[in-house]
Structures are given as structure tokens and as C-alpha cells.
Amino acid sequence: MPPTFAAPDAAAIPCHVVPEDGLDTWRDTLPQSAAAWTHQHGFKGGLGQAVTWPGPDGAITGAALGFGTAAHRARGRFHLAAGAARLPAGTYALTGTLPDGMEAEALGWLLSHYRFDRYKSASGTAARLVAPTGVDAAGIEARAAGEALTRDLTNTPASDMGPDALEEATRTLADAFGASLDVTTGGDLLTQNFPLIHTVGRAADRAPRLLDLRWGNTGPTLTLVGKGVCFDTGGLNLKPGGSMGLMKKDMGGSATVLGLAHMIMALNLPLQLRVLIPAVENSVSANAFRPQDILTARNGLTVEINNTDAEGRL
């Protein structure tokens, strides 16, 4: 499930955002026991630091996340994310005077609790955040969902994320937002003049295909093209084992454009969107393309193959 904000909850644990240069001033506002607790636990307001303190019954009654120094914050973004990932499970609400840039900080909080748990019987419970006042909660959730989709697709092994499964994921996305999806598969790639997609994927037992998603009818046109090589053995120029270990991620380009498409459609941006994904496996079998083959591309140019691991260029 994509990360989302928690529903507003009067019992949410108040969570303070504390920069290093404001540590002493902030600590002076706490009850003496809470101030002593944060000091004893080494909380200094550094980026990535988190601390919680208990009430008389032992339940968490407050929390703080370090916000570092201005110099540290200038070197990156999502400054609360690392600390948020260290908080115990529960519902938290940011309190006090919040810094600028809370849209990004809230997004970072959601992303910090992404988990790929498809193959796990159970997953841990995250520290959930009530949407801070004044942020576009729906927009942030749309961006987090798009990012989660990209990560889920990329993390899924090729046994469950071949060209057919990538097509199904694209169709699910299209159906969710009323987009159209046209798919050209197998031998139809030749009759429709997509010879190189067919060549790269013809040796696999799951047919190559071209996915063509379209959405929107007003505004500027935007076309996203994502590489969808669901697994890359290197073909007949077989990769060594060490280089093949992460080749389930060779479809990361397609996952990225699908995640971005999700954001665009969920935010209902005024665009005419097109997403093109050539989805293949670069496998080895008797009909795999070979080094020194000369292939003819869709535009009529001829391409000599020096190494079959260059399938992305094709």
C-alpha cells in the first residue's frame, strides 16, 4: 500500500521539529522530566536524530526530530525523513512553529516509511503523520503513491515482473484514471514496424510488446518513454554473474515513467500525456540476436550489433 497521512487524531503524539541552534530554547519549554530525558538520550537536534519521552504510565507523550543546521539542510532535502523512520509506531502530529518547506518535509516523512513487503507475511507498522496544517495533503499523497509504484515495480523480481506483468501493471494504472492503453505484442511488432523491439525480446518465452498509454485531451503534449527490459542477461554476450545480479532493475526506466504518470493523472494536471514502454526480456535461446547481425530499425537505418548487451540502445 502506498504511504498515506493518518487521519486527524486528538490523541496524536505531539512531535517537535528542533534545529540544533534552537535546542536550548526548545528544551526550556519542556517539563523538567522530558527535558532531562532528551538530554540523557543524547538528543542535540542533529539531522536524523529522533527521541521520544514517556508519561507517568510509560506511554509516549512527546517526540522530537532533529532539524540540523542551516548548512546541513542546504546540502539536501527531506530533512525529517531519517529521524521519522526511527520513531516507534504510532500517530504523530507536528507541533509548534514549523519551518518553511513543510510540503517537502511531509513528503519525505511518507517516503521514509515505504516498505516492499509483497513477499513478507507481515510488515512493521510505521510512525504515521497527521498532515501538517496548510499543506496539500492530497497532492503529497499522490506524489508518494507514484514513488511507491515506481519502487514496487522495480523491486519485484523478473519471475513476477516480465513483459506481461509490466503490461498488467500499466493497464491497472490506465484503468484507475480512465486512460487508454494500446499494446502491440509479439509478431504484431513486425507488422506494425517495430522490428528492434521484437528482435531484442524474441528469445524470451514471454513475448516482447510495446505499451502505449494515453491520457488527457487539453494542454501541452508530454511523451514519456521508459526502458522496460524486465531482465537483461546480456544476450549471447552473456553478462558475468556479478553484473547480472541487479538486472531485474533494468526496467527501472519504465517504472519511473509509470510512477510519474501516476502523479500527473492523480493531480489532474492539464496535459496530454503519452507513455511509451518497450517491454522485453533480453534472453538467450536459439533465436536470440547475435553479434555482427545487421538489423534494420523502424526509421530505415541499419544497425550492426557489436555486443548483444546493448539492447537498450536498440
Tell me what you see in this structure.
This protein has eleven helices and twelve strands. The chain has a five-stranded mixed β-sheet, with helices on both faces. Strands 6, 7, 8, 9 and 10 form a five-stranded mixed β-sheet that branches. The protein has a two-stranded antiparallel ribbon with strand order 11-12. Helix content is 31%, strand content 22%. The two termini are 35 Å apart. The longest helix has 19 residues, at 137-155. It is elongated and about 75 Å long. The protein is α/β, with parallel strands linked by helices and 314 residues long. The chain has helices spanning 23-27, 32-40, 70-73, 81-84, 102-112, 137-155, 163-177, 188-191, 195-201, 241-244, 252-266, and strands at residues 13-19, 50-54, 60-68, 90-95, 127-129, 180-185, 209-215, 221-225, 228-232, 272-282, 294-296, 302-304. The model has no long low-confidence stretch (mean pLDDT 96). Helix 6 runs antiparallel to helix 11.
